[in-house]
Amino acid sequence: MKLVIINYGAGNIKSIQFAFKRLGIDAVLSNNPEEIIAADKIIFPGVGEASTAMTMLKSSGLDKLIPTLKQPVLGICLGMQLLCESTEEGNTKGLGIFKTKVKRFANDVKVPQMGWNVIKDLKSDLFSGIKESEYMYLVHSYYAEHCDETIAKTDYGINYASALQHNNFYGVQFHPEKSSLAGAKILENFLKLEVKN
Amino acid sequence: MLTKRIIPCLDIKNGRTVKGVNFIDLRDAGDPVELAKQYADIGADELVFLDISATLEGRATTLDMVLHVAEQVNIPFTVGGGISSIEDVDALLKCGADKVSINSSAVKRPELINELSNKFGSQCIVVAIDAKEIDGQWKVHLAGGSIPTKIDLFEWAKEVEMRGAGEILFTSMNHDGTKNGFANKALARLSEALNIPIIASGGAGNVQHFIDTFKEGKSDAALAASVFHFGEIPIPDLKKELKANNIEVRL
């Protein structure tokens, strides 16, 4: 199993690496296209501001590479949002894998949403063995609107897509690497996924 | 629904937990990593480490500790104490801290909040505020509450939000250490005036205090130290009680 965490300078990726280490997998941090293409599984992380992250992706050409990947790819948090068509954060165009848009939470709730919330209507092998309404740790100010690719739903002021899937691309808004044993189970499930194209 | 968070706070000096800790069976009660793991296992939602090291060497040890915590603990944690620059924050986040908490350095130079939230994102910048109510006026205090300022708590909290903080950790110096309950009036006022999460700190003594701070204080999270460290309030029992009082918690 060769697992690569795409390292394009966005956010705290150490936590993701450690979470896989707890599962007995040594993940490689890389921004090298050849190394990424050769991986069995790929994590696309992201913490921070969307337009800055997209600029960093573009400067390394990864914006072109990522949509061409054939192996399972898991976008986490901002990583998931950047796989959508667009985000209101910094008026940023995304990579367009998931056919949905990312919007800012309205001010009728506290922004950012910070803490543990439940995921429901789970529809993917990614959630195998995860019970409905399991708690996940989330920190975000922007959310993905529902679309046909929604595989998990969460309520925070509105009901939004807390996970998405399109072919081999998966995205989760929550942080499985920080979501206790249930989060670890999701990462384990991701490692077991087969390519679906 | 988003749940209310329970956050144990650990004081760290030279990479070791300082105050006596007397709960469950710890081989080494001074080992922050072992303690953090125990807390994660029994259902703490987050952890805060407050570095009270006075020396550079002590701080370097803390970075090492942060790395070990990140390696072994599967819930989020914040590190605070003596953070005053982009470099400090960068080093902590690179070691795997999820959030950092700044306090006196933000009061001395408020632009620091903008710089940090622009560089690292609001989500990882917690601003801790220590304040004391004197003659009906809440004034911000520095250096662990020992130095008074003329700054009004509510004005400062608003400014902190405008400058990009992702969260506020409010400690009432009137309540801290008393075990008489949290500063719920001030907390509710903060929560209503601001649109970022507020963590209540100072005054936890029994389960009812937690119920009150979530209901009356409108707090998003509650932080405590000794009642958890000495097993006076076991976290699983606390959460069951909160749930029984219709407060959403992660069980």
Q: Main traits of this protein?
A:
heterodimer; A: 197 residues; alpha/beta; Rossmann fold; 7-stranded mixed sheet; 13 strands; globular; B: 251 residues; 10 helices
What does this structure look like?
The complex is a heterodimer of chains A (197) and B (251). By secondary structure, chain A is α/β, with parallel strands linked by helices. Chain A has 6 helices and 13 strands. In chain A, a hairpin with a 4-residue loop joins strand 5 (84-87) and strand 6 (92-93). Chain A is globular, with a radius of gyration of 15 Å. Chain A starts with a strand and ends in a 5-residue tail after the last helix. By secondary structure, chain B is an alpha/beta fold. Chain B has a single domain (5-244), classed as Alpha-Beta Barrel (TIM Barrel). In chain B, 37% of the residues lie in helices and 24% in strands. An 8-stranded parallel beta barrel of chain B has the order 1-3-4-5-6-9-10-11, surrounded by 7 helices. Chain B is globular and about 45 Å long. The chains are: A alpha/beta (197), B alpha/beta (251). Chain A binds chain B through residues 11-12, 14-15, 18-19, 21-22, 47-49, 107, 110-118, 135, 137-141, 155-156, 175, 177-181, 183-184, and chain B through 1-5, 40, 45-46, 67, 70-72, 74-76, 93-98, 118, 120-124, 166-167, 195-197, 220-221, 250.
